[in-house]
Amino acid sequence: MNPVIVIPSYWTDAEHLPAMGEIGVYDHATPITKPMPELETCLSSLEKVRGVLRVIVLLVAPRACAAGARARVESICRQHADLGVMIVGDPEADTIRRAVEHIAPNLQQEALSLRGYGAIRNMGLAVAATLGHDVVVFLDDDEVVEDEDFLIKAVYGLGNSNRQGLPILAKTGYFLDREGSPYAREGKPRWCDRFWSKRPEFNEWMRHALGGTRICRSNVLCGGCFAVSADAYTRVAFDPEITRGEDLDYLFNLRMNGIDVWFDGDWCVKHMPPPTPSHAARFQQDVYRWCYEVVKLRLCNQTIGMRQVRPSSLQPYPAAWISEEVYRRIRRTALRRAIACREHASYFYVWERGYRQAREWASRAGYGYLAFQTFWPRVMAMLWDNQLLAAKLVRMGTPPALPGQESKA
After folding, report:
1. Do you find a cis peptide bond into 35, omega within 30 degrees of 0?
2. Could you tell me the pTM of the whole model?
3. How many angstroms separate the Cα of 271 from the Cα of each of 74, 145, 151, 371?
Protein backbone atom coordinates (compact mmCIF):
# COMPACT_ATOMS: atom_id res chain seq x y z
CA MET A 1 0.00 0.00 0.00
CA ASN A 2 0.99 3.63 -0.51
CA PRO A 3 -0.67 5.56 2.34
CA VAL A 4 -0.51 9.31 2.87
CA ILE A 5 -1.31 11.18 6.08
CA VAL A 6 -3.50 14.26 5.53
CA ILE A 7 -3.68 16.92 8.27
CA PRO A 8 -6.05 19.91 7.98
CA SER A 9 -4.52 22.83 9.89
CA TYR A 10 -6.51 26.00 10.64
CA TRP A 11 -4.77 29.33 11.29
CA THR A 12 -5.79 32.88 12.17
CA ASP A 13 -4.10 36.21 12.82
CA ALA A 14 -6.04 37.02 15.98
CA GLU A 15 -7.76 35.27 18.85
CA HIS A 16 -11.18 36.73 18.10
CA LEU A 17 -14.59 35.29 18.86
CA PRO A 18 -16.19 33.96 15.68
CA ALA A 19 -19.37 35.63 14.50
CA MET A 20 -22.64 33.76 14.71
CA GLY A 21 -23.14 31.67 11.60
CA GLU A 22 -20.00 33.02 9.92
CA ILE A 23 -18.78 30.76 7.10
CA GLY A 24 -15.14 29.79 7.27
CA VAL A 25 -14.92 29.91 11.07
CA TYR A 26 -13.45 26.79 12.63
CA ASP A 27 -13.55 25.35 16.12
CA HIS A 28 -9.82 25.54 16.78
CA ALA A 29 -7.88 27.99 14.61
CA THR A 30 -4.27 28.45 15.71
CA PRO A 31 -3.02 32.04 16.16
CA ILE A 32 0.05 32.66 13.99
CA THR A 33 1.90 34.03 17.02
CA LYS A 34 1.26 31.00 19.24
CA PRO A 35 4.63 29.88 20.72
CA MET A 36 3.97 26.14 20.47
CA PRO A 37 1.31 25.44 17.81
CA GLU A 38 -0.65 22.20 17.77
CA LEU A 39 0.78 21.36 14.33
CA GLU A 40 4.32 21.29 15.73
CA THR A 41 3.30 18.88 18.49
CA CYS A 42 1.44 16.66 16.03
CA LEU A 43 4.30 16.44 13.53
CA SER A 44 6.79 15.80 16.33
CA SER A 45 4.72 12.83 17.45
CA LEU A 46 4.79 11.42 13.89
CA GLU A 47 8.59 11.34 13.89
CA LYS A 48 8.58 8.01 15.72
CA VAL A 49 5.86 6.42 13.57
CA ARG A 50 7.08 3.68 11.26
CA GLY A 51 6.37 3.75 7.52
CA VAL A 52 5.49 7.42 6.99
CA LEU A 53 5.98 8.17 3.30
CA ARG A 54 4.37 11.58 2.93
CA VAL A 55 2.37 14.02 5.06
CA ILE A 56 0.06 16.57 3.40
CA VAL A 57 -0.74 19.63 5.51
CA LEU A 58 -3.87 21.45 4.33
CA LEU A 59 -3.18 25.07 5.26
CA VAL A 60 -6.44 26.90 5.97
CA ALA A 61 -6.19 30.63 6.73
CA PRO A 62 -8.06 33.85 5.88
CA ARG A 63 -6.69 35.67 2.84
CA ALA A 64 -5.63 38.58 5.08
CA CYS A 65 -3.11 36.44 6.95
CA ALA A 66 -2.40 33.70 4.38
CA ALA A 67 1.19 34.82 3.81
CA GLY A 68 2.00 34.93 7.52
CA ALA A 69 0.37 31.55 8.12
CA ARG A 70 2.29 30.04 5.19
CA ALA A 71 5.60 31.31 6.55
CA ARG A 72 4.82 29.90 10.01
CA VAL A 73 3.73 26.50 8.69
CA GLU A 74 6.77 26.26 6.40
CA SER A 75 9.07 26.98 9.34
CA ILE A 76 7.39 24.17 11.30
CA CYS A 77 7.45 21.68 8.43
CA ARG A 78 11.13 22.33 7.68
CA GLN A 79 11.94 20.91 11.10
CA HIS A 80 10.32 17.60 10.07
CA ALA A 81 11.80 17.00 6.63
CA ASP A 82 12.05 13.24 7.27
CA LEU A 83 8.23 13.06 7.17
CA GLY A 84 8.13 14.23 3.55
CA VAL A 85 5.78 17.09 4.40
CA MET A 86 3.96 18.84 1.57
CA ILE A 87 1.90 21.99 2.17
CA VAL A 88 -1.34 22.63 0.29
CA GLY A 89 -2.35 26.26 0.62
CA ASP A 90 -4.27 28.62 -1.64
CA PRO A 91 -1.81 28.44 -4.60
CA GLU A 92 -1.87 24.63 -4.67
CA ALA A 93 -5.66 24.56 -4.19
CA ASP A 94 -6.11 26.98 -7.11
CA THR A 95 -3.98 24.68 -9.27
CA ILE A 96 -6.24 21.72 -8.44
CA ARG A 97 -9.39 23.74 -9.13
CA ARG A 98 -8.15 24.95 -12.52
CA ALA A 99 -7.41 21.35 -13.53
CA VAL A 100 -10.87 20.22 -12.41
CA GLU A 101 -12.66 23.03 -14.28
CA HIS A 102 -11.77 21.41 -17.59
CA ILE A 103 -13.87 18.32 -16.91
CA ALA A 104 -16.46 19.69 -14.48
CA PRO A 105 -17.05 23.35 -15.44
CA ASN A 106 -20.33 23.44 -13.51
CA LEU A 107 -18.75 22.26 -10.27
CA GLN A 108 -19.15 24.97 -7.66
CA GLN A 109 -15.79 26.33 -6.49
CA GLU A 110 -16.55 25.98 -2.79
CA ALA A 111 -17.07 22.21 -3.19
CA LEU A 112 -13.34 21.60 -3.63
CA SER A 113 -11.43 24.30 -1.77
CA LEU A 114 -9.80 25.32 1.49
CA ARG A 115 -12.98 26.86 2.86
CA GLY A 116 -15.53 24.82 4.78
CA TYR A 117 -14.95 21.54 6.60
CA GLY A 118 -16.22 19.21 3.87
CA ALA A 119 -14.57 21.06 0.99
CA ILE A 120 -11.23 21.04 2.83
CA ARG A 121 -11.40 17.26 3.24
CA ASN A 122 -12.25 16.95 -0.45
CA MET A 123 -9.15 18.96 -1.29
CA GLY A 124 -7.08 16.48 0.72
CA LEU A 125 -8.61 13.58 -1.24
CA ALA A 126 -8.01 15.37 -4.55
CA VAL A 127 -4.32 15.94 -3.79
CA ALA A 128 -3.90 12.35 -2.60
CA ALA A 129 -5.49 11.06 -5.81
CA THR A 130 -3.24 13.27 -7.93
CA LEU A 131 -0.20 11.81 -6.19
CA GLY A 132 -1.52 8.25 -6.63
CA HIS A 133 -1.98 7.32 -2.95
CA ASP A 134 -4.26 4.32 -2.55
CA VAL A 135 -4.96 5.04 1.14
CA VAL A 136 -5.63 8.36 2.86
CA VAL A 137 -5.17 8.57 6.64
CA PHE A 138 -6.74 11.68 8.15
CA LEU A 139 -5.22 13.14 11.30
CA ASP A 140 -6.05 16.44 13.05
CA ASP A 141 -3.31 18.85 14.08
CA ASP A 142 -4.52 18.92 17.70
CA GLU A 143 -3.77 15.22 18.12
CA VAL A 144 -0.71 13.33 19.31
CA VAL A 145 0.27 9.89 18.00
CA GLU A 146 1.74 7.73 20.76
CA ASP A 147 1.99 4.39 18.91
CA GLU A 148 4.91 3.78 16.54
CA ASP A 149 2.68 1.29 14.70
CA PHE A 150 0.00 3.94 14.10
CA LEU A 151 0.25 3.72 10.32
CA ILE A 152 0.50 -0.08 10.30
CA LYS A 153 -2.71 -0.25 12.31
CA ALA A 154 -4.30 2.36 10.07
CA VAL A 155 -4.02 0.16 6.98
CA TYR A 156 -4.75 -3.10 8.80
CA GLY A 157 -7.63 -4.88 7.05
CA LEU A 158 -8.12 -2.26 4.35
CA GLY A 159 -8.84 -3.88 1.00
CA ASN A 160 -9.75 -7.19 2.63
CA SER A 161 -13.11 -8.65 3.59
CA ASN A 162 -14.51 -9.67 6.97
CA ARG A 163 -15.82 -13.14 7.81
CA GLN A 164 -19.16 -12.33 6.20
CA GLY A 165 -17.41 -11.38 2.96
CA LEU A 166 -18.08 -7.66 3.34
CA PRO A 167 -15.29 -5.43 1.99
CA ILE A 168 -13.38 -3.13 4.37
CA LEU A 169 -12.78 0.06 2.40
CA ALA A 170 -12.98 2.66 5.17
CA LYS A 171 -12.23 2.40 8.88
CA THR A 172 -12.09 4.61 11.92
CA GLY A 173 -10.16 4.52 15.14
CA TYR A 174 -11.04 6.57 18.22
CA PHE A 175 -9.83 9.40 20.43
CA LEU A 176 -8.29 9.21 23.88
CA ASP A 177 -8.72 12.29 26.04
CA ARG A 178 -5.93 13.89 28.08
CA GLU A 179 -6.45 11.27 30.80
CA GLY A 180 -6.25 8.42 28.30
CA SER A 181 -9.95 7.54 28.31
CA PRO A 182 -11.90 6.71 25.13
CA TYR A 183 -15.18 7.72 26.77
CA ALA A 184 -16.85 11.10 27.03
CA ARG A 185 -17.15 12.46 30.55
CA GLU A 186 -20.63 11.82 31.84
CA GLY A 187 -22.05 12.87 35.17
CA LYS A 188 -25.28 14.81 35.49
CA PRO A 189 -25.49 17.41 32.68
CA ARG A 190 -26.13 21.04 33.48
CA TRP A 191 -29.77 22.13 33.41
CA CYS A 192 -29.18 24.05 30.19
CA ASP A 193 -27.52 21.05 28.51
CA ARG A 194 -30.03 18.39 29.45
CA PHE A 195 -31.37 18.02 25.90
CA TRP A 196 -28.03 18.54 24.14
CA SER A 197 -25.72 16.00 25.77
CA LYS A 198 -24.71 13.13 23.49
CA ARG A 199 -22.33 11.57 25.99
CA PRO A 200 -24.44 8.73 27.45
CA GLU A 201 -25.51 7.56 23.98
CA PHE A 202 -21.99 7.82 22.60
CA ASN A 203 -20.48 5.98 25.55
CA GLU A 204 -23.05 3.21 25.30
CA TRP A 205 -22.04 2.62 21.69
CA MET A 206 -18.32 2.90 22.45
CA ARG A 207 -18.50 0.34 25.27
CA HIS A 208 -20.18 -2.08 22.87
CA ALA A 209 -17.57 -1.47 20.15
CA LEU A 210 -14.55 -1.83 22.45
CA GLY A 211 -15.99 -4.90 24.12
CA GLY A 212 -16.20 -7.05 21.00
CA THR A 213 -13.93 -8.08 18.15
CA ARG A 214 -11.18 -5.76 16.91
CA ILE A 215 -13.08 -4.85 13.71
CA CYS A 216 -16.82 -4.16 13.77
CA ARG A 217 -19.28 -2.07 11.78
CA SER A 218 -19.16 1.52 13.00
CA ASN A 219 -21.82 4.09 13.84
CA VAL A 220 -19.22 6.81 14.36
CA LEU A 221 -16.38 8.26 12.34
CA CYS A 222 -13.52 10.09 14.04
CA GLY A 223 -12.21 12.43 11.37
CA GLY A 224 -8.85 12.71 13.10
CA CYS A 225 -8.30 8.95 13.11
CA PHE A 226 -9.74 7.75 9.83
CA ALA A 227 -8.38 5.70 6.94
CA VAL A 228 -10.09 5.37 3.57
CA SER A 229 -8.99 3.42 0.52
CA ALA A 230 -8.99 4.78 -3.02
CA ASP A 231 -11.82 2.37 -3.88
CA ALA A 232 -14.01 4.39 -1.51
CA TYR A 233 -12.70 7.95 -1.67
CA THR A 234 -12.67 8.08 -5.46
CA ARG A 235 -16.37 7.12 -5.43
CA VAL A 236 -17.72 9.17 -2.53
CA ALA A 237 -16.99 12.79 -1.61
CA PHE A 238 -17.38 14.74 1.61
CA ASP A 239 -20.35 17.10 1.66
CA PRO A 240 -19.20 20.72 1.14
CA GLU A 241 -22.47 22.07 2.57
CA ILE A 242 -21.96 20.69 6.07
CA THR A 243 -21.20 23.32 8.73
CA ARG A 244 -19.64 20.95 11.28
CA GLY A 245 -19.35 17.20 11.76
CA GLU A 246 -18.17 16.47 8.23
CA ASP A 247 -16.66 13.21 9.49
CA LEU A 248 -19.90 11.67 10.78
CA ASP A 249 -21.68 13.03 7.71
CA TYR A 250 -19.15 11.16 5.54
CA LEU A 251 -20.18 7.92 7.25
CA PHE A 252 -23.74 8.65 6.06
CA ASN A 253 -22.48 9.44 2.54
CA LEU A 254 -20.54 6.18 2.35
CA ARG A 255 -23.48 4.15 3.61
CA MET A 256 -25.80 5.76 1.07
CA ASN A 257 -23.39 4.59 -1.60
CA GLY A 258 -23.20 1.03 -0.27
CA ILE A 259 -19.93 1.33 1.68
CA ASP A 260 -19.73 0.67 5.42
CA VAL A 261 -17.26 2.27 7.82
CA TRP A 262 -15.56 -0.20 10.17
CA PHE A 263 -14.38 0.46 13.71
CA ASP A 264 -10.88 -0.67 14.72
CA GLY A 265 -10.71 -1.14 18.48
CA ASP A 266 -6.90 -1.32 18.42
CA TRP A 267 -6.25 2.02 16.65
CA CYS A 268 -6.38 5.37 18.46
CA VAL A 269 -4.80 8.80 18.94
CA LYS A 270 -4.67 11.22 21.85
CA HIS A 271 -6.85 14.30 21.36
CA MET A 272 -5.46 17.55 22.83
CA PRO A 273 -7.88 20.29 21.71
CA PRO A 274 -7.36 23.92 22.77
CA PRO A 275 -10.24 25.80 24.46
CA THR A 276 -13.32 26.56 22.34
CA PRO A 277 -13.44 30.34 21.67
CA SER A 278 -17.23 30.62 21.43
CA HIS A 279 -19.68 27.94 22.53
CA ALA A 280 -22.63 29.89 21.10
CA ALA A 281 -21.09 30.07 17.62
CA ARG A 282 -20.39 26.34 17.79
CA PHE A 283 -23.98 25.70 18.85
CA GLN A 284 -25.24 27.75 15.91
CA GLN A 285 -23.18 25.67 13.51
CA ASP A 286 -24.52 22.50 15.12
CA VAL A 287 -28.08 23.74 14.66
CA TYR A 288 -27.46 24.16 10.93
CA ARG A 289 -25.68 20.82 10.83
CA TRP A 290 -28.41 18.71 12.38
CA CYS A 291 -31.25 20.47 10.54
CA TYR A 292 -29.39 19.79 7.32
CA GLU A 293 -28.76 16.13 8.16
CA VAL A 294 -32.47 15.46 8.76
CA VAL A 295 -33.44 16.97 5.40
CA LYS A 296 -30.55 15.47 3.45
CA LEU A 297 -31.10 11.92 4.71
CA ARG A 298 -34.83 12.16 4.05
CA LEU A 299 -34.20 13.24 0.46
CA CYS A 300 -31.49 10.64 -0.12
CA ASN A 301 -33.68 7.89 1.28
CA GLN A 302 -36.22 8.79 -1.41
CA THR A 303 -33.63 8.63 -4.21
CA ILE A 304 -33.55 5.54 -6.40
CA GLY A 305 -30.19 3.80 -6.33
CA MET A 306 -29.14 5.09 -2.89
CA ARG A 307 -29.05 2.79 0.11
CA GLN A 308 -31.36 4.04 2.84
CA VAL A 309 -29.84 5.38 6.06
CA ARG A 310 -32.43 5.52 8.83
CA PRO A 311 -32.13 6.46 12.51
CA SER A 312 -33.11 2.94 13.55
CA SER A 313 -29.90 1.61 11.97
CA LEU A 314 -27.78 3.99 14.06
CA GLN A 315 -28.87 3.15 17.60
CA PRO A 316 -27.97 4.16 20.25
CA TYR A 317 -25.91 6.93 18.66
CA PRO A 318 -26.41 9.10 16.60
CA ALA A 319 -30.02 7.99 15.95
CA ALA A 320 -31.75 10.79 17.89
CA TRP A 321 -29.69 13.46 16.15
CA ILE A 322 -30.72 12.56 12.61
CA SER A 323 -34.44 12.30 13.32
CA GLU A 324 -36.99 15.08 13.74
CA GLU A 325 -36.55 14.74 17.50
CA VAL A 326 -33.52 17.01 17.11
CA TYR A 327 -35.79 20.00 16.38
CA ARG A 328 -37.24 19.79 19.88
CA ARG A 329 -33.75 19.47 21.35
CA ILE A 330 -32.57 22.58 19.52
CA ARG A 331 -35.44 24.78 20.69
CA ARG A 332 -35.24 23.68 24.30
CA THR A 333 -31.48 23.98 24.50
CA ALA A 334 -31.37 27.41 22.86
CA LEU A 335 -33.92 28.80 25.31
CA ARG A 336 -32.31 27.25 28.37
CA ARG A 337 -28.87 28.49 27.40
CA ALA A 338 -30.25 31.95 26.69
CA ILE A 339 -31.36 32.00 30.32
CA ALA A 340 -28.43 30.30 32.02
CA CYS A 341 -25.29 30.80 29.90
CA ARG A 342 -22.96 33.74 29.46
CA GLU A 343 -23.61 34.38 25.75
CA HIS A 344 -27.29 35.18 26.40
CA ALA A 345 -27.98 37.28 23.31
CA SER A 346 -26.43 34.77 20.92
CA TYR A 347 -28.45 31.87 22.27
CA PHE A 348 -31.63 33.95 22.30
CA TYR A 349 -31.00 34.78 18.64
CA VAL A 350 -30.82 31.07 17.83
CA TRP A 351 -34.06 30.43 19.71
CA GLU A 352 -35.90 33.35 18.13
CA ARG A 353 -34.55 33.39 14.55
CA GLY A 354 -31.51 31.19 13.99
CA TYR A 355 -33.38 27.90 14.31
CA ARG A 356 -35.98 28.93 11.74
CA GLN A 357 -33.30 30.22 9.37
CA ALA A 358 -31.40 26.94 9.70
CA ARG A 359 -34.45 24.90 8.72
CA GLU A 360 -35.15 27.17 5.76
CA TRP A 361 -31.54 26.89 4.60
CA ALA A 362 -31.55 23.11 5.02
CA SER A 363 -34.67 22.76 2.89
CA ARG A 364 -32.92 24.67 0.08
CA ALA A 365 -29.52 22.99 0.40
CA GLY A 366 -30.68 19.42 0.87
CA TYR A 367 -30.38 18.41 -2.78
CA GLY A 368 -26.94 19.98 -3.22
CA TYR A 369 -24.88 16.96 -2.23
CA LEU A 370 -26.63 14.60 -4.64
CA ALA A 371 -25.86 16.95 -7.52
CA PHE A 372 -22.23 17.36 -6.46
CA GLN A 373 -21.70 13.63 -5.92
CA THR A 374 -22.51 12.89 -9.56
CA PHE A 375 -19.34 14.78 -10.59
CA TRP A 376 -16.99 13.26 -8.03
CA PRO A 377 -15.99 9.91 -9.62
CA ARG A 378 -15.24 11.69 -12.90
CA VAL A 379 -13.13 14.32 -11.12
CA MET A 380 -11.17 11.65 -9.27
CA ALA A 381 -10.60 9.63 -12.45
CA MET A 382 -9.12 12.69 -14.15
CA LEU A 383 -6.87 13.54 -11.21
CA TRP A 384 -5.73 10.00 -10.41
CA ASP A 385 -1.94 9.64 -10.67
CA ASN A 386 -1.72 12.70 -12.92
CA GLN A 387 2.06 12.89 -13.01
CA LEU A 388 2.37 16.34 -14.60
CA LEU A 389 -0.02 17.89 -12.09
CA ALA A 390 1.56 15.92 -9.23
CA ALA A 391 5.05 17.18 -10.09
CA LYS A 392 3.78 20.75 -10.10
CA LEU A 393 2.03 20.36 -6.74
CA VAL A 394 5.08 18.78 -5.12
CA ARG A 395 7.30 21.56 -6.45
CA MET A 396 4.94 24.24 -5.15
CA GLY A 397 4.12 22.60 -1.82
CA THR A 398 7.49 21.33 -0.62
CA PRO A 399 8.90 23.72 2.01
CA PRO A 400 12.35 25.17 1.22
CA ALA A 401 14.90 22.89 2.86
CA LEU A 402 17.25 24.01 5.58
CA PRO A 403 20.96 24.03 4.67
CA GLY A 404 22.22 20.45 4.35
CA GLN A 405 18.68 19.07 4.46
CA GLU A 406 16.80 17.12 1.79
CA SER A 407 13.04 16.55 1.86
CA LYS A 408 11.41 13.22 0.97
CA ALA A 409 8.45 14.92 -0.71
Report:
1. no
2. 0.94
3. 23, 9, 17, 35
